[in-house]
Amino acid sequence: MSIQNINVALIGNPNTGKTSVFNQLTGLNQQVGNYPGITVEKKIGFCKFPHNIKANILDLPGTYSLNASSMDESVVIELLLNKNDKLYPDVAVVVTDVENLKRNLLIYTQIKDLEIPTILVINMSDRMKSKGITLDIPYLEEHLKTKIALVSSRKGLGIEELKNLIISYRTLPNEACLDMSSIDKAYFKNLKEAFPNQLLYKLWLVITQDVNFSNLDRNELRSTFTKSHSELKRLQQKETIKRYQFINEVLKGGLQVDASMANDVRAKLDRVLTHKVWGYVIFFAILFIIFQSIFSWSTIPMDFIDSTFASLSSWVGAELPSGILTDLLSQGIIPGIGGILIFIPQIAFLFLFISILEESGYMSRVVFLMDKIMRKFGLSGKSVVPLISGTACAIPAIMATRNIENWKERLITILVTPFTTCSARLPVYAIIIALVIPNERIFGILNMQGLSLMLLYLLGFTAAILSAYILNKILKLDSKTYFVVEMPSYKLPLFKNVAINVVEKTKAFVMGAGKIILAISVILWFLASYGPGRDFNEAEKIVKERNSYKPLTEIEFENAVASQKIENSYIGIMGKAIEPAISPLGYDWKIGIAIISSFAAREVFVGTLATIYSVGNSDNEATIKSKMQEEINPETGHKIFNFASGISLLLFYAFALQCASTLAITKKETNSWKWPAMQLVFMSGLAYFVALFAYQILK
């Protein structure tokens, strides 16, 4: 017997538990990607049913209605309009929340009017008793002209009933909820006569929404049945009123609420968590705990991954026959894979906390709380979490922008998030501050080095906010701003949802940005491992000739050869080539090499300088620091790392986008190289000029 494939679309308002229903149906059998050419996330799961039926279950973006105000909603409308789309649903499953049925049913009535077989899911049935809610399911089924599954996605109740309804979708009633001609008889009569083979509601959506319908010439339809913007809005409002009149009439007979049985815990919590003072205090306290935990908990697995791949690299280099392939594996591919996997603990922990906050209902309160402040800078309340997440790592922070519906606000957040001081900058800051800032105390309390570090963090966040303000003025992108945030009920996070979210987000990073990071790591290995001419290829001979009068120990000889090779490698030549451009900043060619190398990851800066200054592979800070302190500019006779050059370097790394993986994830999230290229040019240019200004003033 052949397998029958059906497409099932899960549709509903945000926070109705739609994704929980999706997870109950599919488990980890999911694929996450983007719709072609746009940044809206597409999530498809697979589920096997009895009778050889396999369902492709599409979790559509949360939407309040088919009157589109965001890219997410436009995606939903275009899919439901075009039967030629390979994902066009055979059956639509509209998920609603038992506490918000009136609002949730608006989109249900719209989808019914598209004459798609539709099942109504009333979720969170386990809360009915505590809220004093009683439903007359047969009455609701009769008047809403559908079949209803009463489920609790948290407890897995009603899921089997839902599966049975999906299997028998062909038997569902196929009737519209609203007679469109009741809105304007003459207008819709003419519309029907002009297009007798099309549904009136589909025609109406094409006229009023910025969506495509493959069966029609949209321009011809709009030009023939055009109305003024205000007139169309008036008719849309009339349509919405009629839909709510229908919904109210149905719920009057099918829904009863005994207010005396409902508790008011939610209102009491909201008064505290959204308070104009205590709300902020609680939010920042939670963030402090979260990021302290991220730094503390991720250190152990990150160190384990780092040491494991370092040991593996050393083992491969020692055990395999010497040659290009061994060098590529031990110095390029293995460190490259390690550079991908080392981010996983931070990503996993960050999304663990974000998922818990979202599942509990608290994240919506944070968004509401911060929106008024952030909107002044061209951002939204939803930009707060990515910006603060950037203190751990810009990669998961940029991934966290996916919950920002407005494309312009999301794009600006993505572009400015790398300004936030991440943990990768800390090794650079630590050694430069130790070199150029005195280890003294102000007023006997404030440590100058610690104060400098704190100021660098504040500088990064200030740069992000000001850049957002500038970008908001410069970027001319069409985007509608409707700040609608759902205030869901508080609930204990569902472990299954949290676990699936963490796994999917982590997998998306490894499979997406990881490929690009690995490729760049291999390129950097090649540039540092090879070079033209005698100065590179005969490094050992040159070192012996140079030190013939003073025999070197074996370790000194190996370090001197490594220094000779890296100076004359391709990446060393690049460092020499950019020296005229960076010398006004107080840098020499060696710092230039470290800057180029650290493009793979900022923390590479310290290791590169360690090699250049003949410290071998040791990352012992004191040893590196002593060598750096002794480094003299042969032309001026002054120390390379003085107060002026040190401050210049700190400011350069505060602003520069020295992170290939950040560019990779920006490309993935924007589906274009245009935005990461602009991000790189803007941040690098700003870093250069700020560092130049600082050095020239301070020297």
From TrEMBL:
Q: Where does this one sit in the cell?
A: Cell inner membrane; Cell membrane
Name the SUPFAM superfamilies for this protein: P-loop containing nucleoside triphosphate hydrolases
Supply one GO molecular-function term: ferrous iron transmembrane transporter activity
Spell out the Pfam families in the cross-references: FeoB_C, FeoB_N, Gate
Gene3D superfamilies, per database record: P-loop containing nucleotide triphosphate hydrolases
In which residues is GTP bound?
Answer: 12-19, 37-41, 59-62, 123-126
Query: Taxonomically, which superkingdom?
Result: Bacteria
Q: What residue ranges are annotated as transmembrane?
A: 277-297, 333-357, 377-399, 411-438, 450-471, 508-528, 640-665, 677-698
* Amino-acid positions noted as binding Mg(2+) in the UniProt annotation, renumbered to this chain: 23, 26-27
- How is it placed in the membrane, per its record? Multi-pass membrane protein
CC annotations in GO: plasma membrane
Q: Where is the FeoB-type G domain?
A: 5-172
The keyword Secreted is annotated on this UniProt entry: no
Keywords (alphabetical) are: Cell membrane, GTP-binding, Ion transport, Iron, Iron transport, Magnesium, Membrane, Metal-binding, Nucleotide-binding, Transmembrane, Transmembrane helix, Transport
Q: Which family does it belong to?
A: Belongs to the TRAFAC class TrmE-Era-EngA-EngB-Septin-like GTPase superfamily. FeoB GTPase (TC 9.A.8) family.
Function of the protein = Probable transporter of a GTP-driven Fe(2+) uptake system.
Q: What name does this protein carry?
A: Ferrous iron transport protein B
